[in-house]
Design goal:
283 residues; alpha+beta; Alpha-Beta Plaits; ten-stranded mixed β-sheet; 22% helix; 26% strand; globular
Length: 283
């Protein structure tokens, strides 16, 4: 009998060639997790992510699912395993043939998972889900954040895009409202992608000033390949008054990515949150 689990993952994507396993020898996040969990659980494990991040993109929260013959979760009616949402009272769980208290077991499992992974990848939680639950297709919303630092900071080199120029945040937020009203984002998608539709429902798009520069937050039911970085590149041109709000509308109407701004560097992009309906998680 196979058991299906969701795992919550965070990682620094600087030295990886994105999430998805590659045919060449390039290292990826998915590859490292597959290898680590297969070694730990002594069976072939293949994790399937909620999305495919590009090379250099980071994640504060990315979910993936996998199947295992091992029963990693306590008896029915007990807790989720998560360092960020630790239960106060749970039943014992079997680890290595022995039972320990739930909280201790929780820490032990996550420690075991992370002990077989590089230090720039972390598994922060494990959840028991239904047999047909999918980390990709059951996600109801995803939130990305893009960081721009306007002053040199060696600690942000791989975490933020250094852009030394003042931006018109008020105008960029006016443009962001246009994105929320739009549905077809063909103009902000890489070509030759294998998707059935370029329709996305954006529910939030907002720029704010930060101590280091600027942060853009965007939430949608789905994203196209390269979409966020192209949007940010176009928004920067608007913030520099090189494009107008009417220009943005024309770009969207054209449904041609050649009219969009240049894609900004991957280092500033972070997958911040992934949302799911509660019903897919086992109680």
């Amino acid at each position: 009998m196979l058991h299906r689990y969701f795992i919550k993952i965070s990682f620094d994507g600087t030295r990886y060639n994105g999430w998805q396993v590659q045919k060449n020898s390039a290292e990826t996040i998915q590859q490292k997790i597959n290898e680590g969990l297969s070694k730990l659980l002594v069976e072939k494990i293949e994790v399937y992510g909620c999305c495919r991040t590009d090379a250099g993109v980071h994640a504060k929260e990315l979910f993936a699912h996998f199947d295992s013959s091992k029963n990693l979760i306590p008896p029915a009616g007990h807790t989720l395993l998560s360092l960020n949402n630790r239960a106060k009272s749970v039943a014992p769980m079997a680890i290595g043939g022995e039972y320990t208290s739930g909280v201790r077991a929780e820490v032990d499992w996550l420690h075991k998972f992370n002990s077989v992974l590089p230090t720039d990848i972390s598994i922060d939680g494990i959840y028991s889900v239904g047999d047909d639950a999918s980390a990709r297709y059951d996600a109801s919303a995803r939130t990305y954040q893009y960081f721009i630092n306007s002053k040199r900071n060696p600690f942000l080199v791989n975490r933020s895009y250094y852009y030394y120029s003042e931006l018109d945040i008020a105008l960029m937020n006016r443009a962001a409202k246009i994105l929320i009203k739009n549905k077809d984002f063909s103009s902000f998608s890489k070509v030759n992608t294998q998707v059935k539709t370029n329709i996305c429902k954006i529910s939030k798009a907002e720029w704010v000033s930060t101590e280091d520069g600027y942060m853009f937050t965007i939430r949608s039911d789905r994203f196209l390949r390269g979409m966020v970085r192209m949007i940010v590149g176009t928004m920067i041109l608007i913030g520099k008054h090189k494009l107008s709000i009417s220009d943005l509308k024309k770009i969207l109407d054209s449904k041609d990515c050649r009219n969009a701004g240049v894609s900004v560097p991957a280092c500033g992009l972070h997958l911040a949150k992934v949302e799911y309906p509660q019903k897919i998680f086992k109680k």
